[in-house]
Fold:
Amino acid sequence: MIRPPILNASAQPVEGTDAHLPAVPADRLTPDALRSRFADPPLWQPEFPGDGGVFANKPPAAASVLIPLVMRPEGVTVLLTKRTDHLRAHAGQISFPGGRAEPDDADPRATALRETLEEIGLEARFIDIIGSLPLYATVTSFHVTPIIALVSPGFTLALDGFEVAEAFEVPLAFLMDPSQHQRRRFEFDGGTRHFLSMPWVEGGTEYFIWGATASMLRNLYRFLSA
Structure:
């Protein structure tokens, strides 16, 4: 069965949150603790290996995203982007900087750094890669490697106006608290899909984090809480 895309995710009903799960302790969310965790990772399993199924019967393509953890004095934040509304794929959605691997990329890390520079102008000199999460398979036939990096403050972003409408930061502690993880349901003719969302409100604006971005953040939660 070919599943229809979810075109209005924020309008889908909330079935509940995961408030029964503990938040990642604050002492695990410091830059030193994050670096140590990736240097000596625990035994764990990702909760979401992918979206499940594919829209088209085509071989998977390699891609990478950067999960930039900005080391702010008030606490680590996650740098995210909002895609422009005119894009053919994932228009208006919240995402990490990243994209398809190119032949000249040496490895997934190189892909993530190149795409991050191209999309938001974040230079490699501010980025300290500390590890990665397992591959995430999307319904659009991409095998995505999430690259985790600590980012030093002091950078100036230069957004690619064609792809990126906005860049913003969300406290890592908020995203690593399952009480903020909403479980939603999308019903269509012939089936039901379930997905996570993590809405963040700042300055009266809601940034609706869902889909692959929310799933990768949930996998990061599982890794840090293992």
Observations:
- The helical segments are 31-39, 108-120, 172-175, 211-225.
- The domain at 18-225 is CATH 3.90.79.10 (Nucleoside Triphosphate Pyrophosphohydrolase).
- The chain has one domain: 18-225.
